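Example 9 (inverse folding). The structure is encoded as follows.
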């Protein structure tokens, strides 16, 4: 056992929640962002502004035609797997071999592809790291082991993993349709807190394929955390903090939350209010890329995703037009209500003496 532990340490194989649940998951979200999400945004810009160079076919593979954005989106599996490998500190041969693993696991995982990629890429990467540089023919053995294990697992378990993720996502979305008030609160609070925690709310939403009303509630929760912290900490962090948290990430407050968890009360209560308002009053739906549901106001990706969903729905004939009420709801849920509610709740917790000046100062 001692020798085995020494081997794992030498290979930098760390079996831990942090390495897999935080580092790998967070990296996977970045891979998704740089492929599927960017591809979706490029397609939306091209179609809305009638830019021919973004809407014309630039490549044809088999029977499939791809635009610039389509190519980026098609590479989501490889992008996620390589990002995961990078987070796991894979040597070059393992990292490059994960391109094939990501493609296979994402393709065979179907709608739940991101979750399949996460699990299978981690296993393949760690086996690849274990065999890396252990033989004199490393350039042959390492790719063979990494790709072999990855593709074998993709064929064996990617479809059931994808089905489970898809069904769980559908259950959440169905429950939100049936009980928009209760589920609006739960989804908004849980996904919003996941965004502030050092895990990836975007990857979670992508893995579950979270769209529709549930996706709208997720946008509400994430926006409440980001805008909430940006506003209530403005006195300490000024404009730099407003921008870095409001369109960056509320995760910047994680160190301060550890010191005083009560600073988290105001944004979280705000998300508990904006979630059901989004689902019950404004009927806010995220029908763009599922990853956008967990992005909040980060680069305004959540809002762009909602708009993309509107465009798609209009094109599909399921929505007649984008109305003024749609825009009012999006602005209120994403910006106005999170700011106002967080300030009100923050005043209360400060009056109770639970939070004091300087508690949210970013270093």
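The amino acid assigned to each position is listed next.
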């Amino acid at each position: 056992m001692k020798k085995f532990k020494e081997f794992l340490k030498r290979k930098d194989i760390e079996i831990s929640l942090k390495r897999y649940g935080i580092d790998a998951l967070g990296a996977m979200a970045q891979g998704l962002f740089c492929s599927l999400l960017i591809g979706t945004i490029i397609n939306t810009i091209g179609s809305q502004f009638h830019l021919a160079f973004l809407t014309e076919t630039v490549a044809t593979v088999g029977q499939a035609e791809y635009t610039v954005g389509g190519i980026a989106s098609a590479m989501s599996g490889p992008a996620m797997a390589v990002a995961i490998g990078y987070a796991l500190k894979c040597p070059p041969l393992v990292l490059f071999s994960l391109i094939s693993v990501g493609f296979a696991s994402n393709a065979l995982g179907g709608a739940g592809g991101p979750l399949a990629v996460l699990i299978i890429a981690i296993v393949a990467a760690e086996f690849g790291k274990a065999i890396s540089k252990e033989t004199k023919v490393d350039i042959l053995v390492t790719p063979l082991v990494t790709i072999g294990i990855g593709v074998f697992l993709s064929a064996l378990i990617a479809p059931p993993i994808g089905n489970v993720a898809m069904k769980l996502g559908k259950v959440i979305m169905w429950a939100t349709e049936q009980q928009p008030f209760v589920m609006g609160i739960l989804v908004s609070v849980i996904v919003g807190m996941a965004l502030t925690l050092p895990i990836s709310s975007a990857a979670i939403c992508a893995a579950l394929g979270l769209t529709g009303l549930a996706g709208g509630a997720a946008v509400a929760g994430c926006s409440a955390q980001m805008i909430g912290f940006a506003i209530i900490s403005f006195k300490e962090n000024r404009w730099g903090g407003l921008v870095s948290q409001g369109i960056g990430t509320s995760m910047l407050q994680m160190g301060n939350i550890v010191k005083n968890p009560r600073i988290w009360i105001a944004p979280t209560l705000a998300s508990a209010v904006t979630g059901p308002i989004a689902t019950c009053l404004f009927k806010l739906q995220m029908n763009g890329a599922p990853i956008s549901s967990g992005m909040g106001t980060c680069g305004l990706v959540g809002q762009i995703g909602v708009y993309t969903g509107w465009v798609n729905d209009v094109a599909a004939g399921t929505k007649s037009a984008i109305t003024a009420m749609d825009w009012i709801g999006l602005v209120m849920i994403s910006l106005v209500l999170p700011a106002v509610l967080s300030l009100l709740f923050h005043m209360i917790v400060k009056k109770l003496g639970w939070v004091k000046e300087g508690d949210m100062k970013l270093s």
